[in-house]
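Ops channel
N.P.: pipeline sanity check, posting one input/output pair.
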């Protein structure tokens, strides 16, 4: 990892850089302030009025031709120029692009969301397409917008850091490109309040108004490089509703013929001025009485902020991003409907007739503008870029993270820990199943996995589709990427994706899926993983034996109890309950090792000694009918209640209402592995202060401390299970002591905070944030180690 920000290499990719448009002005102000913080290399086709001292500049030829062809050329050419530079020297830590200029950009400032813009101009564009005189231009624009929208989808839905210039656009980016709510930062434009100042315009006003021949007029100014977007036609219509001495000046890149057509139609041809573009626009502000910005669509719009800095009252559209900083009748007048020329004219007339209001807006507007400095804008952007360089991304592979079960709940805790430590926008989830159900998780869901058929087997088509989705995502997210595999059976796909992307990968082994004889590809992938970790020492040693890994090489990170188990349930069971034992497990046929059949065989003995005792079984699955038949045959069905699948809130209520958790899980490694790799349910019960009776086998013997948080029994002996259960149910002092011991143990060893710290430590050991992937070598134990 590099030591200082000055060491960071930033390649900036922009087709042109000057101070005429908002996007270009913003970037120009930023990079001139970044020179002391970053080593900057600039790739561009046009460069004007920019101090490039200390900045490496790569000029790319700027061919003539229509904009679509020039943009296509630029998009390909800058990639070629940068690829050539990578061959002859070190690559960048970050590629920064204002908008869509390169698909490999890792930090992108979004100044316009073309997908949103297209929604608002589609009808007009298609109408122009049907008119002979406008067909060629309309076709060109539609093709260009289509290309940019496609590239937007590819870039903004990838792993790159993006920020917007307004809250509205930030929300659009989150909604359209599957980013977590609130994850796209907002960096409003700045303004040079020393240059754009009341004193500066006052000193120029008389001479400029005389030169522009507007001494006897009230001047409205509209600055535009896109007539339709900026609402030029509505501004012209509004002039017709204002006093005769009011003129509208249009400054920037405007089509004189289009202006004349609108002005003639509105009958105000003599009251419209077209002022050519100038780098010193302050002269135009000096000549102005009111700035109008009736934008139909505008990511931010800088002229209102510059005019406010000059002390000029403004009328601004609600659809301009800058309006988010403004307050109606306090520092501006806001147009709610930019299509309503009467509303615009009414606001202007108020300012013309009410000098007190105009002066109030001038003073308050100036105050606001002084708070919006380019120094602050550039510093915040630099901080975001540094965060991008220092922070890894994560691609999380999980079978069904929104499902029911200990592995699923643990996977959700991992996602939560990564999101809180590194940001939800940097965590990409690729679920095998349950993609739609995963939308509420704190991450970006990169695949809409379908529902599981209930079988553990995955078809060939599903495997290919999943491997393709993971590999594609890994390539798109590859910069500073860590692949996290939440199930050993997905490890081959993690290895394949790591090979494609150059990213390290870690594999989380939970239990019996890695205890016995492993499939060759799974074994191969575990041997080459950068880190393998497990929730218990028992599982860690079993994985090492099964995969022929070095002794002690598998890290142990215990599963944790989620924050939702803190305290007591919001709505505990209201009725007075008899002595109650609780069993919580998936009732699947391949999870009979949970020992529920043993509990049922023990229950007649419990009922004889405690006739009022009740057993509550929480869980669902194909094995439920068998268990219900056992309860019926043993004559205990009246004291055994099967709850089925319940919500987390209901589960907490069951924990609160029970006296003991009974789950005597069995364990074996051969010939068919079965048993608890850890037993998250024991930690959850302990967190709720519930005593536990568990099988003295597998990971459960680590999750439960015998005599401290529970009682360990022979999982194959119903009499031992019955005896331990009766002891706890009939001795409140014992139940309380074991419950408090379990709670203390859960808080000490299985807390979410401890789990998150362990995850952070694991991530820091990989050290991928410098952007330079270290070479790997094979150790004698076939584990990949850092050189």
């Amino acid at each position: 990892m590099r030591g200082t920000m000055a060491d960071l290499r930033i390649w900036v990719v922009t087709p042109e850089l000057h101070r005429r448009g908002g996007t270009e002005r913003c970037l120009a102000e930023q990079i001139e302030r970044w020179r002391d913080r970053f080593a900057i290399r600039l790739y561009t086709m046009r460069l004007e009025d920019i101090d490039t001292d200390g900045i490496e500049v790569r000029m790319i030829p700027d061919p003539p031709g229509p904009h679509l062809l020039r943009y296509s050329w630029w998009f390909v050419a800058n990639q070629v120029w940068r690829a050539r530079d990578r061959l002859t020297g070190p690559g960048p830590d970050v590629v920064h692009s204002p908008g869509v200029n390169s698909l490999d950009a890792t930090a992108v400032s979004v100044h316009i969301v073309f997908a949103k813009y297209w929604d608002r101009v589609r009808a007009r564009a298609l109408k122009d397409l049907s008119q002979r005189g406008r067909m060629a231009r309309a076709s060109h624009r539609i093709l260009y917008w289509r290309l940019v929208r496609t590239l937007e989808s590819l870039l903004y839905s990838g792993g790159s850091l993006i920020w917007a210039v307004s809250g509205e656009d930030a929300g659009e980016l989150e909604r359209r490109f599957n980013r977590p709510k609130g994850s796209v930062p907002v960096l409003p434009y700045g303004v040079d309040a020393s240059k754009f100042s009341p004193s500066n315009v006052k000193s120029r006003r008389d001479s400029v108004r005389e030169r522009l021949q507007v001494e006897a007029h009230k001047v409205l100014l509209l600055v535009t490089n896109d007539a339709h977007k900026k609402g030029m036609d509505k501004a012209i219509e509004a002039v017709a509703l204002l006093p005769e001495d009011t003129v509208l000046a249009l400054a920037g890149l405007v089509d004189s013929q289009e202006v004349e057509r609108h002005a003639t139609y509105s009958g105000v041809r003599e009251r419209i001025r077209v002022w050519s573009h100038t780098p010193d626009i302050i002269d135009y502000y000096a000549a102005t009485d009111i700035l109008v910005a009736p934008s139909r669509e505008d990511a931010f719009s800088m002229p209102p902020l510059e005019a406010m800095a000059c002390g000029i009252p403004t009328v601004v559209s609600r659809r301009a991003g800058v309006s988010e900083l403004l307050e109606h009748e306090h520092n501006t007048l806001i147009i709610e409907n930019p299509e309503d020329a009467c509303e615009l004219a009414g606001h202007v007339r108020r300012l013309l007739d009410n000098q007190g209001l105009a002066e109030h807006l001038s003073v308050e507007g100036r105050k606001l503008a002084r708070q919006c400095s380019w120094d602050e804008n550039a510093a915040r952007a630099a901080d975001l870029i540094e965060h991008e360089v220092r922070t890894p991304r994560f691609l999380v592979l999980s079978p069904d993270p929104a499902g029911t079960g200990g592995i699923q709940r643990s996977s959700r805790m991992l996602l939560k820990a990564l999101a809180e430590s590194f940001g939800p926008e940097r965590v990409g989830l690729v679920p095998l199943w349950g993609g739609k159900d995963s939308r509420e998780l704190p991450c970006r869901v990169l695949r809409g996995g379908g529902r599981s058929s209930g079988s553990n087997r995955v078809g060939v088509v599903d495997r290919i589709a999943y491997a393709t989705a993971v590999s594609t995502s890994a390539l798109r997210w590859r910069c500073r990427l860590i692949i996290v595999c939440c199930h050993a059976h997905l490890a081959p796909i993690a290895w394949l994706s790591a090979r494609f992307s150059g990213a390290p990968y870690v594999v989380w082994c939970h239990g019996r899926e890695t205890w016995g004889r492993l499939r060759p590809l799974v074994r191969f992938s575990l041997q080459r993983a950068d880190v393998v970790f497990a929730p218990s020492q028992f599982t860690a040693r079993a994985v090492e034996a099964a995969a022929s890994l070095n002794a002690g090489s598998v890290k142990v990170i215990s599963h944790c109890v989620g924050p939702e188990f803190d305290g007591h349930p919001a709505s505990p069971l209201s009725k007075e309950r008899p002595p109650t034992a609780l069993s919580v497990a998936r009732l699947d046929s391949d999870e009979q090792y949970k020992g529920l059949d043993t509990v049922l065989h023990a229950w007649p003995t419990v009922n004889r000694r405690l006739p009022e005792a009740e057993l509550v079984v929480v869980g669902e699955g194909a094995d439920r009918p068998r268990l219900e038949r056992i309860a019926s045959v043993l004559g205990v069905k009246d004291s055994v209640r099967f709850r089925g699948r319940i919500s987390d809130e209901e589960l907490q209520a069951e924990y609160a209402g029970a006296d003991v958790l009974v789950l005597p899980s069995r364990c074996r490694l051969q010939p068919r592995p079965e048993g608890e790799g850890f037993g998250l349910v024991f930690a959850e019960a302990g967190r709720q202060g519930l005593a536990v009776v568990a099988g003295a086998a597998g990971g459960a013997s680590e999750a439960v401390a015998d005599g401290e948080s529970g009682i360990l029994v022979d999982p194959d002996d119903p009499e031992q299970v019955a005896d331990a259960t009766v002891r706890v149910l009939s001795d409140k002092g014992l139940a309380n002591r074991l419950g408090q011991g379990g709670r203390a143990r859960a808080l000490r060893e299985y807390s979410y905070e401890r789990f998150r710290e362990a995850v952070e430590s694991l991530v820091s050991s990989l050290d991928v944030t410098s952007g330079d992937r270290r070479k790997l070598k094979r150790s004698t134990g076939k584990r990949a180690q850092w050189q």
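N.P.: looks fine end to end. Residues 569-575, 770-787 have pLDDT under 50 and may be disordered.
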